[in-house]
Amino acid sequence: MSYAIGDRCNGCGACTRVCPVGAVSGAKGEAHVIDASLCIDCGACGRICPEGAITDPFGIACVFVKRTRWPKPRFDRRLCMACRICVDACPARCLVEAAGDDPAGPRPYPLLKEAKRCLACGFCVQECPVGAVAMAEDS
């Protein structure tokens, strides 16, 4: 299953612009569609839709969330083992590997370099094998 667009779609295109894999298509002012074979279930389309026209893979209507309120990943460097899995899992490519600053042995760590590109998908959290990533809203 993937996300789906229902009858309430007004064709504003917000979902098209935010989709990291180009799974959403449609002409401006006309109902859009999501190609289930491309959808990665990140949920960004559902959070950005001002009309509530999008349902998640379980058929539950998504709720619009102002983009400035989308949670962002926070990294616990004490737990992080510098595996890069979170960086590789990010569909928006907003995470990078930063140089460590520990003089006893610098090791890289994940860093949210482009916060505005973050989709709040949580894939980085899901993929972290040691629980070093959590999503939190900016305060």
Fold blueprint:
Blueprint lengths: L3 E2 L8 H5 L5 E2 L7 E2 L9 H5 L5 E2 L16 E4 L9 H5 L5 E4 L10 E4 L10 H5 L5 E4 L3
Antiparallel strand pairs: 1-4, 2-3, 5-8, 6-7
Number of domains: 2
Q: Would you identify the CATH architecture of the largest domain?
A: 2-Layer Sandwich
* CATH fold-level name of the largest domain: Alpha-Beta Plaits
Ranges where pLDDT stays below 50 over 5 or more residues in a row are: none
Major sheet size, sense and barrel closure: 2 strands, antiparallel
Overall shape: it is elongated
Beta-strand content estimate: 15-25%
Name of the CATH class of the largest domain: Alpha Beta
Evaluate the radius of gyration: 17 Å
How many DSSP helices? 4
- How much helicity do the residues have? 10-25%
The overall strand count is 8
The overall average pLDDT, rounded, is 93
Question: What structural category arises from helix and sheet content?
Answer: alpha+beta
The largest beta-sheet arranges its strands as 1-4
Distance between the termini: 34 Å
Give, in order, the helices and strands. EHEEHEEHEEHE
